[in-house]
């Protein structure tokens, strides 16, 4: 059908960047709340058997409901919903939403019912202890599994309509609820088992509340669109597109989680504390991904889908080129500073109590490897969204599976050569390979000019030279140990290094004419 381009107005790059900035700030608030939640949880539950039971009881519905089913159906729906909105086919949009809700929500509900019956066996298999408290917490949090996919489908529709704040900021509800439950247990010295169950109930209630409020907003949004007696053409193609993207992204997620399992199995062969160090290092390295990378990529996907549907290929080329360049502007200095300041950052955040100097060194070396994954993951996030928007979902699937095989091979080889720290550097090898392959395939498919893209990339590399020098100075001062015994000294070192690097980087970007990159034509 012929589409009127004025159905969906063109969004300038500055507007998209503004959306991404808002989403990044909300992601940062969520990350801080999640950190506070983890800190209070550790203070109340410690490293007890109950703490392990709570962690696994939360891990199961969070992984199955949020990270696998919900994330996959959400990202699969965005391109379809965006295209139907761009084409003004509101009847088909309503049918696609209805089908996604029934298919994903029904499947997730069935899984939740099966897990409810199998809860004792599940907890026994994962933790080695099917305690009553663990089974109770798992069953309390099982509503997360059917609720999360419904919430993410609502998120997809809001994002397709260029409404990004609630999908990003809604997680504040979950983390705030669990944090308050943990704080109440600490403040009033409640029994540990009671506090753990209250935290589980707060997590479940938080996701359900987020889902309900999401659909209140969706209903308000859909009321603005006219009703059609029947769709202009059958919706089978929409179902097929959503289903194909869902299965593809689910397989990618399963492959990623499979690599995580292998990494943790390898870490178990190391000294005591290796697994804990790996977990802390991985989560620290994921912070810039969850705050900045996901913000820009989530904002870009609806626009890419609409540009594709409306045939705005020139606009699509510019948006993708600028997004990749912006990812590098963020990823390069983040990687450098996280790598150079890995020891002072870990010491500042975690060195207290049982987390001694040896734990700092283990975690810091892991963080050094994981920090090198950031750039590859950043550019891969944009490339994956592009291939989803262009209905070529098999490309990121094949690349991600090959990268997973490469990463596992690198993990095994490097672990045998240099010990457990090789796990983190194996992850870096996989991320770099995936990022390079997906970016090359994206350039080839979209016919982007590599020479034009390399010009700003070289300037970005040059702008990071002062950042690298400042990072080296900060690291060398850390090795002297002068004035760094107290926590205040470590805080001053990290803060001063980051402030100096940020100022130098800002000046370099300005001098190299990179601050107004999004105002220029082309890449």
From TrEMBL:
Keywords in alphabetical order: Cell membrane, Cell shape, Membrane, Peptidoglycan synthesis, Transmembrane, Transmembrane helix
Transmembrane found in the keyword field: yes
Signal peptide: none
Membrane topology according to the record: Multi-pass membrane protein
Natural source organism: Paenibacillus chartarius
Transmembrane segments: 16-36, 56-78, 99-120, 140-158, 170-190, 196-216, 242-260, 280-302, 323-350, 370-388, 395-416, 422-443, 457-479, 491-510
Subcellular localization(s) per the UniProt record: Cell membrane
Name of this chain's protein: Murein biosynthesis integral membrane protein MurJ
Superkingdom, taxonomy of origin: Bacteria
Organism phylogeny: Bacteria, Bacillati, Bacillota, Bacilli, Bacillales
Main subcellular localisation: membrane
Keyword Cell membrane attached: yes
């Amino acid at each position: 059908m012929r589409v009127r381009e004025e159905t969906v107005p063109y969004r300038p790059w500055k507007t998209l960047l503004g959306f991404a900035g808002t989403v990044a700030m909300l992601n940062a608030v969520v990350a801080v709340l999640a950190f506070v939640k983890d800190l209070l949880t550790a203070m109340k539950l410690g490293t007890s058997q109950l703490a392990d039971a709570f962690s696994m009881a939360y891990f199961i519905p969070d992984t199955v409901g949020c990270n696998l089913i919900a994330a996959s159906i959400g990202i699969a729906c965005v391109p379809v919903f965006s295209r139907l909105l761009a084409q003004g086919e509101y009847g088909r949009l309503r049918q696609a939403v209805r089908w996604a809700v029934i298919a994903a929500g029904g499947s997730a509900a069935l899984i939740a019912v099966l897990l409810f019956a199998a809860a004792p066996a599940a907890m026994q298999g994962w933790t080695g202890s099917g305690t009553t408290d663990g089974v109770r917490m798992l069953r309390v949090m099982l509503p997360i599994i059917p609720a999360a996919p419904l919430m993410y489908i609502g998120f997809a529709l809001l994002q397709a309509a260029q409404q990004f704040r609630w999908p990003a900021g809604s997680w504040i509800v979950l983390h705030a609820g669990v944090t308050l439950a943990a704080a109440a247990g600490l403040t009033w010295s409640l029994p540990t088992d009671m506090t753990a169950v209250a935290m589980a109930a707060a997590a479940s209630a938080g996701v359900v509340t987020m889902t309900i409020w999401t659909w209140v907003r969706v209903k308000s949004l859909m009321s603005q669109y006219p009703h059609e007696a029947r769709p202009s053409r059958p919706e089978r193609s929409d179902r097929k597109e959503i289903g194909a993207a869902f299965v593809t992204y689910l397989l990618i997620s399963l492959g990623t989680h499979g690599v995580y399992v292998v990494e943790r199995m390898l870490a178990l062969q190391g000294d005591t504390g290796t697994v804990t160090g790996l977990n802390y290092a991985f989560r620290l390295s994921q912070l810039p991904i969850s705050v900045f990378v996901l913000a820009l990529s989530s904002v870009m996907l609806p626009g890419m889908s609409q540009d594709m549907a409306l045939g705005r290929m020139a606009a699509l080329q510019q948006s993708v080129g600028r997004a990749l360049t912006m990812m590098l502007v963020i990823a390069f200095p983040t990687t450098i500073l996280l790598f150079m300041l890995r020891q002072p950052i870990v010491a500042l955040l975690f060195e207290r109590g049982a987390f001694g100097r040896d734990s700092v060194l283990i975690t810091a070396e892991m963080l050094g490897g994981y920090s090198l994954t950031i750039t590859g993951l950043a550019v891969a996030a944009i490339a994956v969204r592009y291939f989803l928007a262009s209905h070529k979902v098999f490309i990121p699937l094949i690349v991600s599976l090959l990268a997973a095989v490469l990463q596992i091979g690198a993990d095994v080889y490097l672990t045998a050569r240099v010990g457990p720290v090789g796990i983190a550097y194996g992850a870096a090898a996989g991320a770099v390979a995936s990022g390079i392959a997906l970016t090359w395939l994206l350039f080839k498919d979209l016919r982007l000019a590599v020479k034009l893209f390399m010009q700003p990339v070289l300037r970005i590399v040059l702008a990071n030279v002062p950042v690298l020098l400042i990072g080296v100075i900060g690291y060398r001062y850390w090795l002297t140990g002068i004035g760094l015994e107290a926590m205040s000294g470590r805080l001053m070192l990290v803060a001063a290094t980051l402030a100096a690097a940020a100022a130098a980087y800002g000046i370099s970007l300005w001098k190299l004419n990179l601050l107004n990159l999004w105002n220029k034509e082309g890449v």
